[in-house]
Amino acid sequence: MASTQAGQVAALIEALADGTVEIVDLTQPLSESTPVIKLPPPFANTPGLSRTEISRYDDRGPAWAWYTLTLGEHVGTHLDAPIHWVTGKDGADVGSIPPTALVGPACVIDKTAETEADPGYLLTVDDLTGWEADHGRIPDGAWVLLRTGWGARAQDEAAFLNVGEHGPQTPGPDVEASRWLAGERAIAGFGTETVGIDAGAAGGFDPPFPLHNFLLGAGRLGLTQLANLERLPPAGALLVVSPLRLVGGTGSPSRVYALVQNPHG
Ligand code: MN
Q1: What is the mean pLDDT of residues 20-29?
Q2: Pseudo-torsion of CA 150, 147, 180, 82, nearest 10°?
Q3: What is the DSSP letter of 55?
Q4: How far is CA 108 from CA 24, 37, 169, in A?
Q5: Total domains, the chain
Q6: How many Å apart are CA 24 and CA 17, to the nearest integer?
Q7: Residue 77 falls within a domain, yes or no?
Q8: The pTM is what?
Q9: 191: helix, coil or strand?
Q10: Any idea what the CATH number is for the domain that residue 203 is in?
Q11: Range of 104's domain?
């Protein structure tokens, strides 16, 4: 260690500079064409992103460009705060989430092959304890990330939402796995590549949307529409989530990235 300043942060700065630690962007690009969830009637739906020009190097502002954004809180790569769900309504809003919950170890559970075989694949408690058998107990403050390959569909709304005659078919945890994630480990949150943290079919589960119900009810966080999970190791990466500090917010588009040991570094 050539660092002249002792300490872990100095070591990290050096590792980032020499490439032994890399930053992987887990954020999908956010644009007017970013897919958003579509709820069936009678439920209200969220707008995606739209922009109106304030000025663009013109008479309204000769040297500057800027826009007004219109978008739902739950658009693109975004965080779900506890108050997003009725079970968490007395919990934290986005602006009250402590930053310690937004930085933590990433436990990446790879169900890509299972999802290729069954796009409605349901993650089970056995999948979670199987990951622990290989990589150790899920640490306190961890982010459990479900890797499915679904991020490859993120720019194609029909393929991404994958709504068929029996409703949306996308992967996510089953009821017992949802209960386990919220109650059996002290995780900070759960992240996925799909449009929501629950499986596509979860509206018909008992309870409906069990991960929203249990996880947000337990004061934990959700993270959706992640990218590039295939670039993370199963264990050992550090996740960083950066939502707006939106007072009263139920969610927020977020930049999400991971610090990863370079396997070649
Ligand atoms: Mn959401």
Answers
A1: 98
A2: -70
A3: E
A4: 14, 24, 21
A5: 1
A6: 14
A7: yes
A8: 0.96
A9: strand
A10: 3.50.30.50
A11: 21-261
Q: What pLDDT sits at residue 264?
A: 73
On whether residue 134 sits in a domain, the answer given is yes
Residue 83 CB contacts under 8 Å (≥ 6 apart), including other chains: 89, 90, 91, 92, 93, 216, 250
In DSSP terms, 143 is beta-bridged to 106, 189
Residue at 11 is within a domain: no
The rounded mean pLDDT for the chain is 96
Please count the residues of the chain: 265
Query: Does 13 map to a domain?
Result: no
Distance 9 CA to ligand 1 centre (A): 33
Ligand 1 centroid – CA 200 distance (Å): 13
Q: Residue 161 C-alpha to ligand 1 middle, in angstroms? A: 14
Backbone angles phi, psi at 7, to 5 degrees: 125, 160
Digit-coded pLDDT (tens) for 94-141: 999 999 999 999 999 999 999 999 999 999 999 999 999 999 999 999
| Residue 78 annotated to the active site | no
Query: Looking at 84, 135, 166, 212, which residue is catalytic?
Result: 84
Give the tens place of pLDDT for each residue, 167-182.
Answer: 999 999 999 999 999 9
The set of residues, in sequence order, having a beta carbon less than 8 Å from that of 107 and lying 6+ positions away, is 131, 135, 138, 139, 142, 143, 144, 145, 234, 235
Q: How many helices (H) and strands (E) does the chain have?
A: 7, 14
| Cα–ligand 1 centroid distance for 130 (angstroms) | 28
